[in-house]
Design brief:
By secondary structure, the protein is of the alpha/beta class. It has a single domain, classed as Aldolase class I (TIM Barrel), CATH 3.20.20.70. The protein is built from twelve helices and twelve strands.
Length: 364
């Protein structure tokens, strides 16, 4: 692999993918609904209005479920999307109907121009929501500037409320910085601040009630995530704590736990303890998938489009951009990739055997 783009790649991809693309009029599932881009609508009628963009493969933590202990081989800088390329793709997707963009990593807040990127995204007409998922290490320092730049939503990854266990899971120090960042975001008016907690048996499932208790005084939304298989994270079924098991444990402590109505494309099943400031949710990717309402697409830091988090099929939008392809050609390739999106992922046991990127190289 070289840093130089291959000038033949766009014609090759176009010839390969156009044969798979359906006629745009055939791709629109329901003509009674307001028009939505045929290129972002798959063959099951799912409309992809939510784009996750990885800003970097680098991270200042080494979380066990996300990255192998030895780290990962980083893509050479010249093969990563430039800021200009990233914004070009963002504009194109927003023009076609994307109204929410989430910036991920690696750790997005270590990218030097993250504030400039958010400022430019804020100018895009039709983009309603800009979100970021962060490990929180730099959040306290950057959150006022993030707010000024136009950031709407913050998700913080936090898997333990015990400092020593936090360090064991992420293989680095920084617990108090993360908590300071959460408090600063709350102070600035982010409501709710979402806390993503990957639950792993034998590691942190004993803290479920402590995380729920966190929502009593703080306006946070704790989202318990079932442990998912990715390259290098040594996943096995015995480590996974299912949504139902977690919910049963929480209901033993708070029997009056209320079920909340979730939005149609929301990935979380939402609950609230009456009288508490915040709420809790469950991301049930393994035990009860939500593929039928999936509206998400991902662009990796090296410019590959992934239509499914658990799929290993990718299309290089970077190579197409660098080959000088027109916007129409780029849209045809995007539409063909979206058109090949499967009805649902392969299931936890099949996924665990598939070759896929480590989470840190997808965009956590």
């Amino acid at each position: 692999v070289t840093d130089r783009p291959n000038p033949r790649i766009a014609p090759f991809l176009i010839s390969q993918f156009l044969s798979c693309a359906l006629h745009p009029q055939e791709r629109l599932a329901d003509s009674s609904v307001l028009p939505f881009s045929a290129f972002l609508t798959d063959n099951f009628g799912r409309r992809h209005s939510y784009l996750r963009i990885s800003l970097t493969e680098k991270c200042n933590l080494r979380c066990q479920y996300c990255m192998p202990e030895e780290g990962v081989k980083l893509t050479p800088r010249g093969q990563l999307l430039s800021t200009s390329e990233l914004l070009t793709l963002a504009r194109l997707f927003v023009r076609e109907g994307v109204d929410k963009i989430r910036l991920t990593g690696g750790e997005p807040l270590i990218r030097p121009d993250v504030l400039d990127i958010i400022t430019e995204l804020r100018k895009l007409e039709g983009l309603k929501t800009i979100a970021v998922t962060t490990n929180g290490i730099n959040l306290a320092r950057l959150s006022p500037k993030l707010k000024d730049a136009g950031l709407d939503l913050i998700n913080v990854s936090l898997d333990s409320l015990v400092p020593a266990k936090f360090e064991f899971i992420v293989r680095r120090k920084g617990f108090h910085k993360v908590m300071e960042g959460i408090d600063k975001a709350i102070e600035l008016g982010y409501n709710p601040v979402k806390i993503n907690c990957v639950v792993m048996r034998g590691l942190n499932e004993d803290e479920l009630l402590d995380f729920v208790a966190l929502t009593e005084e703080k306006p946070v939304e704790v989202r318990f995530i079932e442990y998912m298989p990715f390259d290098g994270n040594k996943w096995n079924f015995k480590k996974m704590v299912s949504y139902q098991e977690m919910l049963d444990r929480i209901r033993q402590r708070w029997p009056n736990l209320e079920t909340l109505q979730a939005a149609q494309a929301d990935t979380a099943k939402m609950f609230k303890v009456p009288g508490f400031s915040g709420q809790v949710g469950f991301i049930t990717s393994m035990s009860d998938h939500f593929c039928g309402s999936c509206n998400r697409l991902r662009i990796t830091a090296d410019g590959n489009l992934k239509v499914c988090l658990f799929g290993n099929s990718e299309v290089s939008l970077r190579d197409v951009l660098r080959s000088g392809a027109s916007e129409d050609e780029l849209l045809q390739i995007i539409g063909a990739a979206v058109g090949r999106k499967k009805k649902q992922h392969a299931g936890m046991f099949s996924i665990s055997q598939m070759k896929n990127r480590p989470m840190v190289l997808i965009g956590g």
